[in-house]
């Protein structure tokens, strides 16, 4: 159920890499492809009141995993965006509390 949000890059880039992202991450995170969501969020950056060029900011929301898995996901996402010509990539991970995440009236607590 990883929810991956891309900001600071072109919409077309997210569209083009979405399949590769899921294919390369599904085995690492041990989740079927249809559990992933890929989202594009348009963003503009400003420094001292002036428009500034964007760079990729990726947020991964998920049920927590080992640091080794997280490191692998960060590496894959970074490599994919470097392949797309982005020299700098920043990624943040956000963990859902299973008791606070619901689907169809049911929470995911163990």
UniProtKB/TrEMBL annotation:
Gene3D superfamilies (UniProt xref): Macrophage Migration Inhibitory Factor
SUPFAM superfamilies tied to this protein: Tautomerase/MIF
InterPro entries on file: DUF1904, Tautomerase/MIF_sf
Domain of life per record: Bacteria
Protein name: DUF1904 domain-containing protein
Organism name: Dethiosulfatibacter aminovorans DSM 17477
Lineage, opening ranks: Bacteria, Bacillati, Bacillota, Tissierellia, Dethiosulfatibacter
């Amino acid at each position: 159920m990883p929810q991956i949000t891309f900001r600071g890059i072109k919409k077309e880039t997210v569209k083009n890499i979405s399949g590769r992202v899921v294919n390369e991450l599904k085995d690492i995170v041990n989740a079927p492809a249809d559990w992933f969501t890929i989202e594009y969020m348009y963003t503009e950056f400003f420094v001292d009141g002036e428009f500034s060029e964007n760079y990729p900011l990726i947020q991964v929301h998920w049920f927590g995993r080992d640091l080794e898995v997280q490191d692998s996901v960060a590496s894959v996402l970074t490599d994919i965006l470097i392949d797309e010509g982005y020299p700098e990539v920043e990624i943040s991970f956000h963990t859902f509390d299973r008791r606070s995440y619901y689907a169809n009236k049911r929470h995911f607590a163990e």
